[in-house]
Amino acid sequence: MGVNIRYVPLGADHYALALIGVDRPGIVAAVAGGLSDLGCNLEDVTTSLLRGHFAMVLEFSAPAAGDAGAIRRHLLARTAALDVHLDVWPVAPSRPEGAATHVLRLHGPDRTGIVAAIAAVLAGLGASIRDMSCSRDDVDEPTYLVVVEVDVPGHVDDAVLERALRAVADELSLRLAVERILPEPL
């Protein structure tokens, strides 16, 4: 059985897709297969399991003159038996993004506003969140863990970053670890 490889031509249209549904086998296969049917190329994919729900966000390119509505209808037909919610919409072609420069870990008692407070500090410093994972543990006392990969502008000193985050962490009774990511040689 041969593999049919289709390349998306220059000038292709770009789209984003967001999906969530109860976790079950076959979701990625249905979406990736449906996009492949249409000659689409996956460019960036993130998946996660959120308390038993599978979530996927991706960016893809499609042959020029694609139609987000038609793509969505095709994918809904492919995923009908999986009971997922999905949407597709056009986006501008992606551009190179900065790499994460720091990893932040915060852990402590669960309370409303932890992510909002951290995100506000980072935004105030001009830092951009590249990846974030948050989880709540309900064993004994509810606790919350946040791990964030962030791109901090070069003009922001590490001590300034840590001091700003430490103020929020102390206010919310969270343990904080800030680690600079060192570039790895290839």
Structure keywords:
2 domains; alpha+beta; 4 helices; Alpha-Beta Plaits; disordered N terminus; four-stranded antiparallel sheet; 186 residues
Describe this structure in words.
This protein has 186 residues and is an alpha+beta fold. It folds into 2 domains: 13-91, Alpha-Beta Plaits; 102-180, Alpha-Beta Plaits (2-Layer Sandwich), CATH 3.30.70.260. It is 26% helix and 38% strand. It has helices spanning 27-37, 68-79, 114-124, 158-171; strands spanning 13-22, 41-50, 53-62, 84-91, 102-109, 128-137, 143-151, 175-180. The protein has a 4-stranded antiparallel β-sheet, covered by helices on one side. It is globular and about 50 Å long. The model is unreliable at 1-11 (pLDDT under 50).
C-alpha end-to-end distance:
36 Å
Profile the largest sheet. Answer: 4 strands, antiparallel
Per CATH, the architecture of the largest domain is 2-Layer Sandwich
Strand content: 35-45%
- Give the strand tally: 8
Brief sketch in words of this structure:
The chain is an alpha+beta fold. Helix content is 26%, strand content 38%. The strands form two sheets. The chain has a four-stranded antiparallel sheet, covered by helices on one side. Strands 6-7-5-8 form a four-stranded antiparallel sheet, with helices on one face.
Please outline the helices and strands.
Blueprint: E1 13-22, H1 27-37, E2 41-50, E3 53-62, H2 68-79, E4 84-91, E5 102-109, H3 114-124, E6 128-137, E7 143-151, H4 158-171, E8 175-180
Antiparallel strand pairs: 1-3, 1-4, 2-3, 5-7, 5-8, 6-7
Helix pairs in contact: 1-2, 3-4
